[in-house]
Design a protein that fits this description.
The protein has a single domain, classed as NAD(P)-binding Rossmann-like Domain (Rossmann fold, 3-Layer(aba) Sandwich). The protein has helices at about 15-30, 40-50, 65-80, 105-130, 155-175, 190-195, 210-220; strands at about 10, 30-35, 55-60, 85-90, 135-140, 180-185, 230. Strands 3-2-1-4-5-6-7 form a seven-stranded parallel beta sheet, sandwiched between helices. By secondary structure, it is α/β, with parallel strands linked by helices.
């Protein structure tokens, strides 16, 4: 497959889990991919796997909640490739508990990674894409942006906020040829869930690769077409009627 040959993509949190699956999917379609993550060891492992498959990747260590570090990774992307066609805001964090017991630190951490990070990355990408005449931004949300669970206040609030950011980005980007969509995954069998014995991690799951196919579909749509929102989940997972 070669639907993204010549395209440059940047994926945050691309060193493992959903992000890694999306990196592999985009690269398989011919895109050159910038992989961003905080875990240097996991980042190098993913870079090596991509290199073994002859994928063209650039691995950059950064904290997406830090404005200076975010600006630096986009500058390095331009230095290396000269443009940016696709941004995938995937980096995420989860914390929670009973509403009256959540600490300020837990709240701030989740909101910083899940909302501040996408804002900072979107702002940098928007500046680049406006100048070059277009681009596509894909935000990885969650079904928690639509149906919440108890004990998930920081996470659910951040994903609701990300859906709002998606809509504003799509609206403001329209006249510049910049599209923005939000992919809301249900249960995905990422590494931490495969090793967990929590009840919620025993629910029906889809693989990282299955979910990544949806992100790749969004990325390969014609430039004048946008998938504004998509909900993808295992058939057996409770969603409609959950709460």
């Amino acid at each position: 497959m070669s639907q993204l040959i010549g395209k440059i993509a940047l994926v945050t949190g691309g060193n493992k889990g959903i992000g890694k699956g999306i990196v592999m999917g985009l690269a398989s379609e011919g895109a050159s991919v910038v992989i961003v993550g905080r875990d240097a060891a996991a980042l190098e492992k993913t870079r090596a796997e991509c290199a073994a498959r002859c994928f063209n990747v650039l691995a950059l260590t950064a904290d997406v909640t830090d404005a200076a570090q975010v600006a630096a990774i986009f500058a390095k992307t331009l230095d290396k490739f000269g443009r940016l066609d696709i941004l995938v805001n995937n980096a995420g964090a989860f914390d929670g508990g009973p509403l009256d017991e959540i600490t300020i630190d837990a709240w701030d951490k989740v909101l910083a990674v899940n909302l501040r990070g996408p804002f900072l990355c979107t702002r940098e990408a928007f500046r680049i894409m406006k100048k070059q005449g277009g681009g596509r931004i894909i935000n990885i949300g969650s079904i928690s942006a639509q149906r919440v669970r108890p004990g998930s206040a920081p996470y659910s609030a951040s994903k609701h906020g990300l859906w709002g950011l998606t809509q504003v980005t799509a609206l403001e980007g329209r006249e510049f040829g910049i599209s923005c969509g939000c992919l809301h995954p249900g249960n995905v069998a990422v590494e931490r869930r495969q090793e967990s014995d929590k009840i919620e991690d025993q629910e029906p799951m889809m693989t990282v690769e299955e979910l990544a196919r949806s992100a790749v579909l969004m990325a390969t749509l014609p430039a004048h077409v946008n998938m504004l929102e998509a909900i993808v989940l295992p058939v057996g997972q409770l969603y409609v009627g959950r709460g």
